[in-house]
């Protein structure tokens, strides 16, 4: 059974890989573009074969366990099955020199410091600060502010704009009554019923949308009610 979960993507860019084909092709360096960076993924490199094969001259062959991606007669990548419609590339990630690739200008440092001190204002609010105050240096322009926001340098702002699906999309197909039942317990209610119940056990049939409900005094009554309902 496959469990589908959502993950957070924090960036998009290019990545250089050292291809190590599992079927015997020679090692070579490959650059992938439009790569999504999702730190919470359990596998480092996942790939959509459909996306790769949109590149002219690229094709793939194989079975459910491994695919070979070729251009002409040359094997450029192999991918091992990871999950439904996803394969993990047989590659090593080539990590660039961080000192050379991550460069922050003095302007961006100044903008970032003020942005955080002012309570993380929006881009337009930063424009106003630039226009109506002397909080920023005179050599800082709107383009510098645009660059700051485009690079997503403020981690709290980036994370606050992200959305996470609360529940994964169900892959279960229901075709008859009582095939899938949802249960829940509501309470404790602020006011007891006439019989002393402060909780409500509910059940819903996914196929018919039929509802059942039982007032209960304590959660411990749930097991006996479910057993009686099943029998």
From TrEMBL:
GO molecular function, one example? nucleic acid binding
Source domain of life is Eukaryota
UniProt keyword list: DNA integration, DNA recombination, DNA-directed DNA polymerase, Endonuclease, Hydrolase, Magnesium, Metal-binding, Nuclease, Nucleotidyltransferase, RNA-directed DNA polymerase, Transferase
InterPro entries with a match to the protein in the record: Retrotran_Ty1/copia-like, RNaseH-like_sf, RNaseH_sf
Q: Does the keyword Hydrolase apply?
A: yes
Establish whether keyword Magnesium is in the entry. yes
Q: Which GO terms describe its biological process?
A: DNA integration; DNA recombination
Can you name this protein?
FOG: Transposon-encoded proteins with TYA, reverse transcriptase, integrase domains in various combinations
Organism of provenance: Phaffia rhodozyma
């Amino acid at each position: 059974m496959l469990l589908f979960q959502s993950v957070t993507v924090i960036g998009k860019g290019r990545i250089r890989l050292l291809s190590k084909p599992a079927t015997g092709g020679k090692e070579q360096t490959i650059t992938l573009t439009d790569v999504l960076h999702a730190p919470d993924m359990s596998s480092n490199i996942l790939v959509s074969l459909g996306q790769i094969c949109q590149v002219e001259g690229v094709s793939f062959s194989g079975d459910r366990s491994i695919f070979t991606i070729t251009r002409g007669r040359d094997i450029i990548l192999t991918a091992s099955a990871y999950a439904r419609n996803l394969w993990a590339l047989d590659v090593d990630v080539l990590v660039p020199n961080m000192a050379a690739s991550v460069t922050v200008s003095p302007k961006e440092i100044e903008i970032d410091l003020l942005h955080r001190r002012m309570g993380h204002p929006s881009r337009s609010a930063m424009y106003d600060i630039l226009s109506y105050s002397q909080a920023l240096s005179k050599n800082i322009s709107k383009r510098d502010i645009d660059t700051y926001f485009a690079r997503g340098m403020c981690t709290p702002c980036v994370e606050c704009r992200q959305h996470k699906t609360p529940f994964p999309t169900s892959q279960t197909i229901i075709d008859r009554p009582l095939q899938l039942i949802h249960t829940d317990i509501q309470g404790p209610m602020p006011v007891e019923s006439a019989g002393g119940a402060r909780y409500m056990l509910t059940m819903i049939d996914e196929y018919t949308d039929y509802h059942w409900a039982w007032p209960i005094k304590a959660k411990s009554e749930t097991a006996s009610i479910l057993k009686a309902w099943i029998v």
